[in-house]
Design a protein that fits this description.
four-stranded mixed β-sheet; alpha+beta; 19% helix; 12 strands; 177 residues
């Protein structure tokens, strides 16, 4: 869907947050369906009469939001469903596997630059992911895990739920370059 325009007038919120909230609301209501494409950022800025940089402010998806930002999701029955296509990511529930635990996260750039405490709880499997990783990660025992999440321009996402800056004294994992 490239003719979608969010309704943000009178929200009282900063415009970039109002746009993000409108996307979420329209997904919940069914106005935006899996596989629908959002209009290009410049076109959306023109439609709303606002600056391009306001529209291009980062989009981040955690867990289910991360999967929605990807190209496709395969359900437990093995049927693939198109997603938003903002990240080169394919996920699946066809081969469920529990991913659970606290995580030490590190990002070298972007809105999450720094060291973070987080957690992961999901049953989805990453089938394929292409692009720059968002986080370096370690589990609660300090075991280094494969990189988590993806960055593509102003769009980021990860199965990790970011909780807070990593407390002092907790070992830190090295951020990806």
């Amino acid at each position: 869907m490239t003719d979608w325009t969010p309704h943000i007038a009178g929200s009282g919120r900063p415009r970039y947050l109002a746009i993000a909230e409108a996307i979420a609301a329209d997904i919940r209501s069914g106005a935006l369906l899996p596989g629908d494409r959002l209009p290009p950022q410049r076109r959306l800025a023109e439609r709303l009469g606002i600056d391009f940089t306001t529209v291009s402010t980062a989009i981040h998806g955690e867990c289910g939001g991360y999967m929605v930002l990807g190209d496709g999701l395969t359900d437990a029955g093995g049927h693939r469903h198109a997603m938003a296509g903002l990240l080169r990511l394919e996920t699946s529930f066809a081969a469920r596997r529990l991913h659970l635990g606290y995580r030490s996260l590190a990002a070298a750039r972007g809105p999450f630059a720094g060291h973070w405490a987080g957690h992961e709880f999901h049953y989805a499997t990453t089938v394929s992911a292409a692009g720059a990783p968002l986080f370096a990660a370690a589990d609660a025992e300090g075991t280094v895990l494969p990189p988590m999440g993806l960055c593509a321009g102003s769009v980021t996402g990860s199965f990790a739920h970011v909780i807070a800056p990593l407390p002092q004294g907790v070992p830190k994992v090295n951020a990806p370059v």
